[in-house]
């Protein structure tokens, strides 16, 4: 049986694309294992799926001063030794890495044993962990055409991001029953990420009376951010977080407002949902969401409004513009070559195993 070792961790975004690959990898006959940090989010997500999980020591490689800079290099070295020992035991035929700092020891250990490595970079420009790993990789997959110029030409492959195939099986009728909404008006889905986005929440709520004249609104507002004073509004439903029913909410939605995390926008692309992206401010991040959003804007997939430009009037105008031009966004997404990521990536994995 062919053996594959998956790695990636630190955030859910470093794990969910790996999870999306699992059904196809099983179809192809792979024995699957996962290596991540001792107690990262990846451990819970993977163990819930009954995948053998191997934890290693993990430290962050920082480019700024932090007292942990004096101790984390030793954690990384320990992780490298642990990864070598585990890989020697598992003897995988190939390693697929989704990135995050825990992946660095795994990739370096695989390279030591001359095991082929396929990387995936979600954001426009490679993060530090993937930049360290790229020399050891056979191929580097990416989400955006612009990323190709940041990667070695002979290794770079534009694939898009693997998304959970169950998201494509949503049922709008089930969503109507779940939400209590009606089929007679269009539906706007607002997503702020699993933690919610205060700026997006406040902006949407500031225009609710006017929005609800034309749209029904499903608001995924984040943990602790439900506003009980709005619960009685007709045509407006709010939830902290949705998991199993998300596919149905997507099926019911006509347009979407979202942050611009790479996995989230790749899901919108695969689902062909016209969207308004409000990326996380550069003041609160390294600016990757802004770059992601502008790429989707250039490709005709999205409208973009930077957080600093969000006002009630501007947001309302953007929602109307998005809805009125929704067909042009859908057509552009339908023509994209970045929506078959699972087949493309597993094809690269198969090639690496057979080489």
UniProtKB/TrEMBL annotation:
Protein's GO biological process: carbohydrate metabolic process; cell division; cell wall organization; peptidoglycan biosynthetic process; regulation of cell shape
Binding-site list for UDP-N-acetyl-alpha-D-glucosamine: 11-13, 164, 194, 289
Matching HAMAP family: MurG
Location in the cell: Cell membrane
Function, as annotated: Cell wall formation. Catalyzes the transfer of a GlcNAc subunit on undecaprenyl-pyrophosphoryl-MurNAc-pentapeptide (lipid intermediate I) to form undecaprenyl-pyrophosphoryl-MurNAc-(pentapeptide)GlcNAc (lipid intermediate II).
Record gene name: murG
Record-linked Pfam families: Glyco_tran_28_C, Glyco_transf_28
Main location as per UniProt: membrane
Protein family per UniProt: Belongs to the glycosyltransferase 28 family. MurG subfamily.
Record-annotated membrane-spanning stretches: none
Protein name: UDP-N-acetylglucosamine--N-acetylmuramyl-(pentapeptide) pyrophosphoryl-undecaprenol N-acetylglucosamine transferase
EC numbers: 2.4.1.227
SUPFAM superfamilies linked: UDP-Glycosyltransferase/glycogen phosphorylase
Keywords assigned: Cell cycle, Cell division, Cell membrane, Cell shape, Cell wall biogenesis/degradation, Glycosyltransferase, Membrane, Peptidoglycan synthesis, Transferase
Domain Glycosyl transferase family 28 C-terminal: 187-343
Recorded topology in the membrane: Peripheral membrane protein
